[in-house]
């Protein structure tokens, strides 16, 4: 449970042969063990970013979650029926553009939404209904069993307390233990996430850390209570490419160390591609496609997913990019039918009338909300539907609402 | 200090020709103020230290690097928004660094900038027509002194021009009297581009123009930029950290690290055959939207952060994070050396074979680090933070059969 490590964290990322969960699993017969000591001043290492295999037991299940916010302009339907399950040690990637409801749905799971928010649906943590719990019970869960890593570590941390104090606070708010022991735990966690001189760094304030180190400290804070679920909301968006790689790798390493599952929220398809076992794509407050990461990336069954994938420049392709024409709909006045229909190259009358449910496609565990997924399935290159010359949407011309 | 860079410009194949924009040995220092009452200058931070580059008409130079490496500062110093400490910036042969403010204003008709944040760079109190037309007014191009703020009868020339600009960037001219908040991010960035184009510049400094936009919208703005370049023959100084977009849009690439250009050359040379270790690491760290490639690809993950520019490392600035660093790297700053085709690399030990480099970087780590025990003798995973009952199929359960002396490492 919460017994402190008996060994310095630096030894316990040792790899195991044959385990899919090797962080640096190379093709060769011997797994390599690299980068043990926390952050030497000189150094690089070579590795893959691959998370360990997922378990089968459900830790978190979300069903029919809806969140709306009453505003002066009307009811903003930020989340409209999100359902997903998260298995033990699984990494679930949630992708979507800004305003698609990916952050709001996770805030609802954490119980961090403002009081004005209207939340319905069910959220279960290991079978217990989270929304039906008392505030006290929710508090006991939050930060202990379900932890969160925020996008911007500078604003997520309190600037007037030391990092050590804040880490220890995370422990002390859930467990009765001497402050000294909590500090020792904080130190271990800082070492675990690769912060050099963790003991000295306990007394530092957040502003004395660099962006990457702050994000490491955030990860340390999230895992200090040994959670089952880590919700990482755009954990690397504010970081540079090389630091992003470090942080993602550390996140996987730490996740595998504490056996947690991760909900990884991001708009960066590259991050999801490397890390997530399964991927959920959101659009206008709803999941529009869920499936194994390979299925979603290689065999998209929802035109929006195909459009997203097609709009990323690829190395060999120097022709014109293929943006999705138009803009996401307003969450106050959603169009009738499929919310993607005004931008969709496959649109027909049925799309404008009825919103398609999230239903199984060619694979049973690959769900998509599209009337015409079979047309995508029949196409050689599903992203090709978004060629401007085919869609007739001149770049941006029809963009004004 | 900047002599190596200027020496290198001598080896450039295209030395004789006059470039549209020519930057030589650009240095940009900012004072560091003390804490006392007088806030005396206690030091200097060199954000850009001796950058030389050039840009020709109709060409795109992609500038990549991590935050704080000086890429934006370089862009602004070219525009003289920051007065460079030393070095020269020439636009069509005219030196900008010594120019008076009045002359500069005229030059800026040829040199415009698009900012990163389309939310902060547009005045929320001005309708779009005024935002775009402001430059025309300042430069006296808004039909002979008729400076009405809401496009009254006498200002037809300007209004028309603004309408043209809006349709040029794919917006409808009727929307010109709306305010910025009524537009989406992608549309706002189009307004920012229209504003920069109002004076028909030859060079556009694009400071992370698509970083703040959603993926599907980015592509539209990138397409727009490419179209405009084809139609108007613009030269782009394209600053970005998204390597795939830079690869798509650029003709040439400059990679910056801690205020210096470490590698520059034609796009395909730099992307397909990176020679500076930093470029190799940067390219290998960038995630791709391809699950299979992501799983199998080996990447070099640099440890630590970029050193502080207040106190940059001696010699090669990358040496503190470089796996190839040797003694000479600490003492001698590597000059940029031309490896053919204008591919300049500032490294004592340039990378020739990326594949081999990955192996060597790995070996270096295993051999060179005493704290790293041999993989085969490493203890079984100790599973320090206990399991959660049923969840205990994690690391501690998969005990390593190859490691009898568990936990011997320290």
From TrEMBL, chain A:
Upper classification of the organism: Bacteria, Bacillati, Actinomycetota, Actinomycetes, Nakamurellales
Single Gene Ontology MF annotation: ATP binding
Highest taxon in the source lineage: Bacteria
Cross-referenced SUPFAM superfamilies: P-loop containing nucleoside triphosphate hydrolases (SSF52540)
Similarity-based family: Belongs to the ABC transporter superfamily.
Chain intervals for the UniProt region annotation (Disordered): 1-42
PROSITE patterns xref list: ABC_TRANSPORTER_1, ABC_TRANSPORTER_2
Entries under NCBIfam families matching the protein: oligo_HPY
Topology with respect to the bilayer: Peripheral membrane protein
Domain ABC transporter: 60-309
Name of this protein: ABC transporter ATP-binding protein
Gene Ontology terms: cellular component: plasma membrane
Annotated localization: Cell membrane
Biological process, per Gene Ontology: peptide transport
N-terminal signal peptide: none
Gene3D superfamilies: P-loop containing nucleotide triphosphate hydrolases (3.40.50.300)
Keyword terms of this UniProt record: ATP-binding, Cell membrane, Membrane, Nucleotide-binding, Transport
Tagged with keyword Phosphoprotein: no
Automatic annotation (TrEMBL), chain B:
SUPFAM superfamilies: P-loop containing nucleoside triphosphate hydrolases
Region (Disordered) location: 362-410
SMART domains: AAA
Record CDD domains: ABC_NikE_OppD_transporters
Keywords, in A-Z order: ATP-binding, Nucleotide-binding, Transport
GO BP annotations listed: peptide transport; transmembrane transport
GO molecular function term, any single one: ATP binding
UniProt-listed Gene3D superfamilies: P-loop containing nucleotide triphosphate hydrolases
PROSITE patterns xrefs: ABC_TRANSPORTER_1 (PS00211), ABC_TRANSPORTER_2 (PS50893)
Domain of life: Bacteria
Pfam families in UniProt: ABC_tran, oligo_HPY
Domain (ABC transporter) ranges: 32-283
Family: Belongs to the ABC transporter superfamily.
The protein's name: ATP-binding cassette domain-containing protein
Source organism (scientific name): Nakamurella leprariae
């Amino acid at each position: 449970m919460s017994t402190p490590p008996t060994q310095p964290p630096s030894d316990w990322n040792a790899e195991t042969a044959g385990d899919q969960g090797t962080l640096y699993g190379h093709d060769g017969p011997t797994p390599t063990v690299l980068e043990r000591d926390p952050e030497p001043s000189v150094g690089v290492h070579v590795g893959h970013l691959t998370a360990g295999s997922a378990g089968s037991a459900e830790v978190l299940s979300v069903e029919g979650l809806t969140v709306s916010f009453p505003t002066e302009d009307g009811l903003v339907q930020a989340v409209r029926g999100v359902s997903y399950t998260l298995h033990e040690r699984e990494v679930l990637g949630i992708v979507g553009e800004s305003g698609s409801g990916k952050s709001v749905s996770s805030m609802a799971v954490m119980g961090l939404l403002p009081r004005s928010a209207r939340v319905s649906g069910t959220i279960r943590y290991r079978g217990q209904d989270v929304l039906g719990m008392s505030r006290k019970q929710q508090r006991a869960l939050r930060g202990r069993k379900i932890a969160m890593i925020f996008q911007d570590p500078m604003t997520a941390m309190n600037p007037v307390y030391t990092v050590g104090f804040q880490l220890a606070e995370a422990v002390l708010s859930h467990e009765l233990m001497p402050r000294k022991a909590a500090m020792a735990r904080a130190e271990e966690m800082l070492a675990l996430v690769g912060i050099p001189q963790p003991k000295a760094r306990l007394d530092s304030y957040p502003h004395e850390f660099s962006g990457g180190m702050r994000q490491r400290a955030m990860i340390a804070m999230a895992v200090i209570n040994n959670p089952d679920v880590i919700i990482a909301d755009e954990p690397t968006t504010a970081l540079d490419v090389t630091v992003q790689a470090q942080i993602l790798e550390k996140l996987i390493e730490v996740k595998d160390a504490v056996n947690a599952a991760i909900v990884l929220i991001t708009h960066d398809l590259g991050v999801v591609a490397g890390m997530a076992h399964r991927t959920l794509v959101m659009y206008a407050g709803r999941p529009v496609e869920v499936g194994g990461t390979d299925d979603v990336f290689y065999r998209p069954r929802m035109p929006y997913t195909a459009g997203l994938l097609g709009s990323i420049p690829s190395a060999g392709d120097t022709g014109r990019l293929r943006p999705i024409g138009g803009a996401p709909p307003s969450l106050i006045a959603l169009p009738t039918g499929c919310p993607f229909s005004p931008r969709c190259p496959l649109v027909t009358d049925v799309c404008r009338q009825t919103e398609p449910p999230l239903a199984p496609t060619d694979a049973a565990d690959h769900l998509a909300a599209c009337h015409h997924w079979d047309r995508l399935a029949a196409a050689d290159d599903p992203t090709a539907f978004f060629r401007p010359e085919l869609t007739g949407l001149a770049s941006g011309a029809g963009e004004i609402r | 200090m900047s002599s190596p860079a200027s020496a290198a410009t001598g080896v450039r194949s295209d030395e004789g020709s006059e470039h549209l924009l020519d930057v030589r040995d650009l240095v940009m220092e900012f004072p560091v103020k003390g804490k006392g009452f007088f806030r005396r200058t206690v030091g200097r931070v060199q954000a850009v230290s001796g950058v030389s580059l050039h840009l020709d008409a109709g060409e795109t130079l992609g500038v990549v690097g991590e935050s704080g490496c000086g890429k934006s500062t370089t862009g602004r110093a070219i525009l003289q928004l920051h007065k460079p400490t030393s070095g020269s910036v020439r636009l069509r042969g005219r030196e900008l660094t010594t120019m008076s403010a009045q002359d500069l204003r005229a030059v800026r008709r040829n040199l415009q900038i698009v900012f990163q944040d389309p939310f902060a760079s547009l005045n929320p109190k001005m309708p779009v027509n005024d935002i775009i037309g402001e430059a025309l007014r300042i430069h006296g191009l808004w039909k002979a002194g008729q400076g009405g703020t809401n496009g009254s009868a006498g200002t037809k020339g300007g209004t028309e021009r603004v309408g043209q600009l809006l349709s040029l960037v794919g917006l409808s001219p009727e929307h010109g009297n709306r305010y910025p908040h009524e537009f989406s991010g992608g549309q706002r960035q189009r307004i920012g581009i229209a504003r920069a184009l109002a004076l028909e510049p030859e060079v556009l400094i694009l400071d992370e123009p698509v970083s703040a936009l959603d993926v599907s919208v980015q592509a539209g703005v990138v397409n727009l930029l490419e179209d405009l370049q084809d139609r108007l023959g613009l030269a782009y100084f394209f600053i970005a950290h998204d390597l795939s977009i830079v690869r798509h849009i650029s003709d040439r690439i400059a990679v910056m690290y801690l205020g210096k250009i470490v590698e520059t050359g034609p796009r395909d040379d730099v992307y397909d055959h990176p020679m500076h270790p930093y470029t190799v690491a940067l390219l290998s760290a960038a995630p791709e939207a391809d699950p299979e490639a992501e799983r199998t690809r080996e990447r070099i993950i640099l440890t630590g952060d970029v050193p502080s520019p207040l106190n940059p490392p001696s010699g090669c600035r990358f040496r503190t994070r470089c796996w190839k660093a040797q003694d000479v790297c600490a003492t001698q700053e590597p000059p940029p050396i031309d490896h053919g085709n204008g591919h300049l690399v500032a490294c004592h030990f340039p990378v020739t074979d990326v594949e081999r480099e990955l192996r060597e970087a790995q070996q270096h780590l295993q051999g060179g680090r005493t704290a790293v025990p041999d993989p085969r003798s490493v203890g079984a995973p100790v599973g320090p933070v206990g399991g959660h009952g049923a969840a205990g199929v994690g690391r501690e359960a998969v005990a390593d059969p190859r490691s009898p002396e568990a936990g011997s490492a320290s």
